[in-house]
Amino acid sequence: MVGPGRDGHTHPPLRRRQESLRHVRKPRRQRRQGGAERVTLRGYLKVRHPKVPRRWSLGRRYDCGGAAAITPDERTRKLESYRDAYGRLVDGLKQFPRDIWQFRDAHGCWSIHELVVHITDSEANSYVRCRRLIAESGETLMAYDENAWATSLDYHDQNPDEALELFRLLRHRTYTIIESLPEETWSHTAHHPENGNMTLDDWLETYESHVPEHLQHMRENYDAWMAQDNSG
Fold this sequence. Notes:
232 residues, 7 strands, elongated, disordered N terminus
């Protein structure tokens, strides 16, 4: 039966699917010479070797020595975008009826629900990383396995509204600290075990774009659900 969703609009019925939480994301792999694998995932390209755990990540490689310095105007724009991320996330989520938030596409990509919880867990790590870059320049940052967190912490069993509120608080508290930092603080560095050395400017670039990137993944997930329903 077709009926109104929680957003007040009428949507096609959701096809309930029995999918295991153990399979969060399945990138396509192609074997390369020498045992390495070329892993492609919705436009993101990485080369993984057999001894390196394969997991979904939008992480970047940093090279502080060769990175171009960001201008004050560019940083101001990024800071404003970083500040406004919660509003953009909430507005973006209004596009998707709650009934489909736990839907995964045929590739097992994270659901909208899982992405919401992931964004908050990532923000919690970002909260600590930012403060370490400011107060303990030169130290090492903690890495974490995003897929292991999603599975072991059972993201689908967590409350997404509570996750959104926690994200709002974490993002606001960090913004109040970084909005007026001295210029020299932005060149502070830390070592990320997987992505190399990064500056505070690198940190800002990563987390300023984090919510927009995942909103795009949510739209792709929604499109996959619509395509599946229309094909039936």
